Amino acid sequence: MKLCSQSFKGLLLAAALALPTMAFAAEPAMMKGGVMTDHKGMTLYTFDKDTGGKSACTGQCAENWPPLMAEAGAKAEGKWSVIKRDDGSMQWAYDGKPLYYFVKDKAPGDMMGDKMKDVWHVVRESQK
């Protein structure tokens, strides 16, 4: 009985340590003022030329529109997914659409890239 009790306590301890990382994994972005932003308040965009959950923004495009990168081991959940870019790096996507910043947005709340060339769009609450 003593061995069973120790095993059970060990199992409870392992579960208690693992639960916070599983239950409280933060989404990579959030809605703030009706607009999707990262956790620093920087606006996120989608690109109309992205199709099939694949980024069409590479090279100079990615320099002007940096991707919202996903860290190694990032887990997709709900409408969130992680896509593989052509260079092998990983990028967050929401509802199948890769997400980007705009290089000219300098401060939280800036939306300089909204409707740029009619192909770049801020992710808004109504789209979520």
Q: What is the mean pLDDT?
A: 86
Q: How many whole angstroms does the radius of gyration measure?
A: 19 Å
Structural domains: how many: 1
Sheet with the most strands, sense and barrel status: 3 strands, antiparallel
Secondary-structure element string: HEEEHEEEE
Question: Helix amount, in percent?
Answer: 10-25%
Topology:
Layout: H1 2-23, E1 30-32, E2 35-37, E3 45-47, H2 60-64, E4 80-84, E5 90-94, E6 97-98, E7 120-122
Antiparallel strand pairs: 1-2, 3-7, 4-5, 5-6
Question: Would you mind describing this structure in some detail?
Answer:
Strand 1 (30-32) and strand 2 form a beta hairpin. The chain has two helices and seven strands; from the N terminus they run αβββαββββ. The strands form three sheets. It has a three-stranded antiparallel β-sheet, with no helix packed on it. The protein has a two-stranded antiparallel sheet with strand order 1-2. Residues 10-24 have low confidence and may be disordered. With 128 residues, it is α+β, with helices and mostly antiparallel strands. The chain is globular and about 30 Å long. The termini are far apart. 21% of the residues lie in helices and 19% in strands. It has helices spanning 2-23, 60-64; strands at residues 30-32, 35-37, 45-47, 80-84, 90-94, 97-98, 120-122. The protein has one domain (26-127).
